[in-house]
Amino acid sequence: MIYLLFVFGFVLLIVGAGWLIDGALRLARRFGASDLAVGLTVVSIGTSVPELVVNVAASLRGSPDLAIGNILGSNVANVLLILGVTGAIRTLPICNRTILSEIPICLAATLLVGFLANAHLFTTEQILTLSRLDGLILLGFFALFLGYVYRTAQDGMALGTSAPDERSAHSGAGTALRILGGVLALALGGEWVVRGALAIVENAGVSESLVGLTVLALGTSAPELATTVSAVYRGKTNVAVGNIIGSNIFNLLWVLGVSAVIRPLPFDLLSNTDLVMVVVSNALLLLAMAIGRPNTVDRWEGWGFLAVYGAYLAFLGVRG
């Protein structure tokens, strides 16, 4: 029964994220937000909610390896798996602002998490952890990132005007019901997923970190995959790439920040390997912009991302 609830929990996470994103998009369209603004904010927040729900549940249950593994594994999967899949399906152009601003911000957020998690190596304690203070620092930088997004919109580079009929196509009550239903589905699904993950750890004799980096990461990245493939299929590449990079920044600063504030997260020294992999995945994305066609993930580069991700999963299997 626990494994059935585990699978059904992922279904609830995906459905709940879909309802929440749809409701939030309706609200955003009412205010005339553009594709890039929606991708960086509404869609990124919505697709990061499964990670947040799972991490909060894992933190409350005292399973820090699940929480940290979920975030690091999700960020690697978002770039190498999701952009790999979408790039393999269709050539993926990326705007200059994403290359010059959002990807470097994501790299900086990764390095910040690495510094905070390993800071105690330089003290007498030498016990690695993301403390409540570290969590507050991450949330502070998250607030700065939201300020950057707002400034981008104010500069007229991320705001547009939606058609009047698009703004008024949905009722306020329907939008509110979708958002509320999404939140409830996410809360219940997150609890069932964490229970199932802990059962796998206990019965299969594998580490929490391995389950977080693989099973949980792939499951909580499902909304990003569905949203990104759908956006690319409809030609909304700014939504697709903005969603992935924004979601990764939200995961590092918002989700890990909230999780650490709820309960300090002990950090395994081995997890630095996965932090490095997050940096490598972003570096590969920047490299793809420099070789081949400029500012584009070509189809062969998408397949290359998938090959690297497959090698990373094999490495985790051996390590675990």
Task: From the structure above, extract its key features.
mainly alpha; two-stranded antiparallel sheet; A middle domain of Talin 1; 320 residues
Could you describe the 3D structure shown?
This protein is mainly α and 320 residues long. The chain has a single domain (2-319), classed as A middle domain of Talin 1. The protein contains 12 helices and 4 strands; from the N terminus they run αααβαβααααααβαβα. The chain has a two-stranded antiparallel sheet. The chain is globular. The two termini are 26 Å apart. The relative contact order is 0.24. Residues 157-168 have low confidence and may be disordered.
Write a compact overview of the structure shown:
With about 325 residues, the protein is an all-alpha fold. It has helices at about 1-30, 35-60, 65-90, 95-120, 130-155, 165, 170-205, 210-220, 220-235, 235-260, 270-290, 300-320; strands at about 90-95, 130, 265, 295.
Helix-strand blueprint:
Elements (H helix, E strand, L loop, with lengths): L1 H29 L4 H26 L3 H26 L2 E2 L2 H23 L10 E2 L1 H23 L9 H4 L4 H33 L3 H13 L1 H12 L3 H26 L2 E2 L4 H20 L5 E2 L1 H21 L1
> Order of strands in the sheet with the most strands?
1-4
Shape verdict: globular
Strand content: under 5%
The CATH architecture:
Up-down Bundle
